[in-house]
Write a structure and sequence with these properties.
With 129 residues, the chain is mainly α. The chain has 2 domains: 9-72; 78-125, no CATH class. Helices cover 57% and strands 0% of the residues. Helix 1 (9-34) runs antiparallel to helix 2. It is rod-shaped. The two termini are 49 Å apart.
Length: 129
């Protein structure tokens, strides 16, 4: 026996809109081809409008929730962790502790705005942005 995947609310609303659209097409075909006198079912229009409004509200809720969660947890630069920090006088990488050359050390000092004041080996300079 296979298990069905659980649908999200948004996908459920999209499938509801698709179902109502198929019913509207069915009513149109029956009215024009079978009965030869067009008619409409206003309840389908109301259902389509309601489902569309609910989908817009749901998408808006998800977007706002994502923005709020991003503001609540700001991005922390790589060099802010206590274990990763090293003294600026040492010639070692703040991330891995590997010794760095004086040329790399001078480059990190000259670009301290980019590296948030830390010294990083050549391999870890790319990860600090």
């Amino acid at each position: 026996m296979s298990r069905r995947k659980k649908l999200s609310i948004s996908m459920l609303l999209v499938e509801g809109i698709a179902l109502v659209c198929m019913l509207k097409v069915f009513v149109w075909v029956i009215g024009n081809n079978v009965m030869k006198s067009p008619f409409s079912v206003p309840e389908l229009d109301y259902a389509l409008f309601g489902l569309g409004a609910l989908l817009v509200l749901r998408v808006g809720y998800v977007v706002v929730k994502a923005k709020v969660s991003n503001k609540a947890a700001p991005n922390k630069p790589v060099g802010d962790n206590e274990l990763e920090l090293s003294s600026i006088d040492e010639h070692v990488c703040a991330y891995c502790g590997k010794a760095v050359s004086e040329k790399v050390w001078n480059y990190c000092i000259a670009n301290s705005h980019r590296f948030h004041g830390g010294i990083y080996c050549y391999d870890h300079q790319r990860s600090v942005r």
